[in-house]
Amino acid sequence: MHLTQVLELFPEYTVTQLLFKDVKNTTELRKMAVNGEIKGALINPSMVVDSFQILVAANKAVHLHKNGKMKTRSLYSEIIFNLSPTNNISEAFKRFGISDSDSAVHIVLVHNKDEILNINDIILKVDGQQIAVDRVSDLTDVAKIKKLYKVAPLEEKCGSLLDAVVCRMATKDVA
Amino acid sequence: MAHSDSVKAGVPSYLKEAQMIKQGAEARVYRGTFLGRSVVIKERFTKLYRHPEVDEKLTRRRTTQEVRSILRCRRAGINAPVVYFVDYTTHCIFLEDIIHSVSVRDHIASAQASEQNPQHLQTLVDKIGEILAQMHDEDVIHGDLTTSNMLLVSGAEDHNMKLVLIDFGLSYISALPEDKGVDLYVLEKAFLSTHPKTETLFERLLKSYTASSKKSPAVIKKLDEVRLRGRKRSMVG
Amino acid sequence: MTVVIGFEGSANKIGVGIIRDGEVLSNPRRTYITPPGQGFLPGETAKHHRGVILTVLQEALDEAGLKAADIDCVAYTKGPGMGAPLVTVAIVARTVAQLWGKPLLGVNHCIGHIEMGRLITNAQNPTVLYVSGGNTQVIAYSERRYRIFGETIDIAVGNCLDRFARVIKISNDPSPGYNIEQMAKKGTKYIELPYTVKGMDVSFSGILSYIEDAAHKLLSASQCSPEDLCFSLQETVFAMLVEITERAMAHCGSQEVLIVGGVGCNLRLQEMMGVMCKERGARLFATDESFCIDNGAMIAQAGWEMFRSGQVTELSDSWITQRYRTDEVEVTWRD
Asked: Would you say C115 and C44 are in contact if contact means Cβ atoms under 8 Å apart?
């Protein structure tokens, strides 16, 4: 049900995504992420159009990490920051991170291919129902995304919402 | 998370495996796969003939301008490839691969060779004029308009023809009619030198441009001035 | 055997050259040099040319060891260039053609540069960068024309250099461009200047007005030396020229470059072009100042090609024109 992909630019790294709904221990999960019990980024799935969007954020985070040019403290916070269309870090966490009241969580793990990753460890920590990652589109809040990324109807003439979102993420350093 | 691996990994080693499809004047273009998608990678390499400071500034500026203008065009509904990733250290841009497309240059050449009905090319230049007017209304100056830098996506009918603008490396943002006029002048010269005997076709393109933008009269006036400058220029020496 | 004599005087050089089937028999020349800070004006330049043209003509014949009877055709520069000097030279060419009873031939100055470059370097079908005081063009041959793929949209590169030289009072002897080149060798600091490439075209007026404005400020504040300015200007404008040449080569699929025109003898420009060519696996062809700079032999050589392909200019058509684009000429001597 989870999705594991290799980053072509950094073949030593893989990115694993897991999606949960009806989560009852969001507050607890947030704490675990903060104190390092969960080594991953916890993302609000309503802000995710497609798993590709997460991959773009993760790839950029690994790239900046390797070049020592991250804007935030960890690879996982960097992934959340990269999802945001703006360069405001606290704003990025507010919009793309999860809050105590959320009942769905999109978890992103980045690991070196030599590391043994026990996905079950993560799954056991979540008190909720795991669903297939591609079902994230069921949870997407299209209106909220369009508003936040400022996607006007005109732009959808030349591509999907995902294209619009990804293009902004990739160019936000100079746009 | 461990990151002891060689720092060289990343874009440079990736490009070694990628398939180079073109070595242009200022960039190498590759085709590859990025996060599972088919992409075109544009790598601006160091031009050794340039002073290092000139080279560094130009390369950085052009990479930035390129992605900025693409986003600006897309926001306005003008087709340009999606930017997936930009590496400012190696000056590489990862772009959407516009599949099933042919350059307008090749398309016109083959249409002229096969002498198919002229109406099709007329529809094409009407569309080009319309898109360029839209682009200029967004104050995007392409900087290198040629028929090689426009892709025609195949399959669509004439009435909803899909054209994609590419290669925004020399682009910049300006509202000045002079800059827009020069943009058209560059296209005119490239168009007429690449496609012999297309004067009437290009006139039609300009007519469509004029009809598509309220700001066009000032631009066309500047275009006329720039053309005249070419002919009236003192050529002493 | 065909012997052609060529008269050139479209700007501040006056030259007479004789060509016999690809062989340069003579090519004497004089230059009208103005004081530092001053450019050459048409009337005074024409006066200079009038004063020396017959001497130069005699030198050309003596050096070639020929008499008037040995000449088959008299070629002269029809344009482009400055009106008064062009007229002066055309009158002399017309007169000798009638005296000697030889056919006349009006030649495009730019074509003269190209054909001379091809003769001297043996370049077959090069992309030509033509750079001088009045011209900046990237040219390639196709379907009976030398077509202009790129050019300046305002002033010529040589004009930009000459006017910069006047701003900081660089000597015009032997030429402002030569002196800038020598000074640039001693420059070390790069001052950023506007860099303007538009497609295959370039613009120099922005650079000139920027440096005209900044030069004295920078110099009086000791932020850089005159040598640094020469260096920065050359590095910038030459990079632009090499870039548009490379763009044109990529566009036309060409693997040869020929540099012609007065600015073309600048060794730094040749060096930069050479690096670009090496990167592309292309070949560079360039000539030294005897043929890069305006001269009579180049007019004779283009005239030779035209004459051999059956062209002559009737006396009634032997006018001059200040504006004469390279692509107006039908190239009847190439396939």
From this structure: no
